[in-house]
Amino acid sequence: MAEAGRDTAKRTWIRIAWGLPLAAVLLLAPAGTLWFWQGWVYWFVYSSSVVLITGYFLKHDPELVERRLRAGPAAEKERSQKVIQSIANVLFILEVVVPGWEYRVHGPDVPVGLAIASDFLVALGFWIVFLAFKENSFASAVIEVSQGQRVISTGPYRMVRHPMYAGALLMLGFTPLALGSYRAMIVVPFTVLVIVWRLLDEEKYLVGQLAGYEEYQRATRYRLIPYIW
Q1: Which fold has domain 2-219?
Q2: Comparing C-alpha atoms, which of 187, 37, 24 is closest to residue 98?
Q3: Are 226 and 159 in contact (CB under 8 A)?
Q4: Model confidence pLDDT, tens digit, residues 4-30
Q5: pTM score, two decimals?
Q6: CA 145 to CA 22: how far, in whole Å?
Q7: Per-residue pLDDT for 99 more than 90?
Q8: Structural contact between residues 72 and 89, judged by C-beta atoms closer than 8 angstroms
Q9: Rounded to whole angstroms, how far apart are CA atoms 13 and 2?
């Protein structure tokens, strides 16, 4: 088990070691300058959140990290989820690439205060995702039901059925503003639709595959946003 944990940690940190510099390139290259401070601040928030959350769970729940390593369209078992994940990846790339291009062509449109406030909301989104992971060790990156999996109805799962998606929605919804772009906000409604599509498709799967999920749906009314939906 210890050897397996070390292997998980090694593969995780290797992925982060190339993933975070790639994220910096996607943010800064379209801007054509290293003085795109909105990109640097966002990259710091994103990178520090990823590193801190990963480090915590490698220590306290390496099995969760192992489940999260299997991610992306190719890892999905359901065809619909392969399509959803592919679209989601394209939308995320647009959210981080368009602001840099806009900075190069027009300069930033978003006031400094609003950009910084949006960075805090992005960090809050990561915090909500962390709380969901902490409560639910079965939170795989793909739609599946693991052996021994049970319905989680505690912590943030008492308020909404999909707190991880709620956190992701907050993070992605404010990414364009954090990067100083109003124009990139046009991507956000499509991101919301894709998240809703994914969770509705996931619920259909869980009703048929996870014992007790239908009862949990009746007990926890809201899917994504408390008192709204």
Answers
A1: Four Helix Bundle (Hemerythrin (Met), subunit A) (1.20.120)
A2: 187
A3: yes
A4: 567 888 889 999 999 999 999 999 999
A5: 0.92
A6: 31
A7: yes
A8: yes
A9: 17
